[in-house]
Amino acid sequence: MAGHNKWAKVKRIKAVVDLRRGKVFSRLSREITIAARSGGNDPAKNPRLRTLLAKARDANMPAENVERAVRKGTGELSGAAYEEFTYEGYGPGGVATIVKVATDNKNRAASEVRSVFTRFGGNMAGAGAVSFLFRHAGQFLVSREAATEDALIEVALEAGADDIISTADGFEIRCDVHAFDRVAHALERKSIKAESAEIAHIPATTVPVADPGLARTLVKFHDALEELEDVQQVFSNDEMDDSVSAAAHA
After folding, report:
1. 3-class state of residue 65 by DSSP
2. 98, 71, 75: which is closest to 87 by C-alpha?
3. I want to staple 192 with a disulfide (CB 3.0 to 4.6 A). Which of 112, 124, 187, 215 is the partner?
């Protein structure tokens, strides 16, 4: 979700992570396998793998799970051959939605994602149908307890970040996809821990959602997508104020 909704989502994920730890580990395993397959098993030479290993540590993912995922990617262990796909469409209320999957069965993944869109009154669309409404960029969320705005300006902008947005929850750092690893390294060197760090689809324009019923439906729609085995990430351009978002997530 857009804007401060992103912070709300991060907080909600942290609150339920123990209940869904298996799903978190499954997602990370797939991404690590894909990263190792495409860029090798050396984190120093594979920025994507390095970022994922840091996420795995933050999630307390067992070391043996991480090692197994890497070895599957390099071919040392047999396993499913995962591929990444992106689906686009319109969810409830006409909200533009992008769904990223990692799957060993494209037909199954597409069918399940389409089923969720249909169940909630939305519809899937072709490639490029809604992606133009988003910016594909690096995104870091840093709490106010982790760093001051001046510190982030000095560290992140020097590393190649484009913008630092201050909100009540903290700071959002945006950068070009190709600068993601440099910014991540710069924050790490200064011991500035991000609450969230990812390559995201950030809405260029948003759809305000004030109706509580629609807000609840959108939350259920997002949850249904994220519960699918193959789904890795969901992005949309809806925007709720704090009271509507809190009620919808209750």
Report:
1. helix
2. 98
3. 187
